[in-house]
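Journal club side-thread
Mid-discussion, someone asked how the predicted structure for our own chain would compare to the paper's figures. Pasting it here so we can look after the session.
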Amino acid sequence: MSKYEPSLDLCFSALGDPTRRMILQRLARGEASVSALAAGHDMALPSVMEHLKKLEAANLITSRKKGRTRICALSPEAFTPAQNWLSAQNAIWEGRLDRFDDYITTLMQEKET
């Protein structure tokens, strides 16, 4: 069993909201100002700011001030722990399904004989 990683909880919690996922998809195309992100979601600026806070707390995005504008950018390296966890889960389930397939195949062969 793998060790507990609180960063995974933050990451998956942040990814659990469709608005935050859409923000991440937009930032995957490049940096954007907070106002540009808000305009794309038909939401009040404070609501978008709350979503951005959660994404930043999960280290999925970074933000910086440029004059009076706050610019947000994706932090792709922050997805690595989640990707690694999902890959490990995928390997576990593939192994289980392969063993189940072998078991069913054995049962079918025994039934034929």
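Post-session note: The domain at 6-112 is CATH 1.10.10.10 (Arc Repressor Mutant, subunit A).
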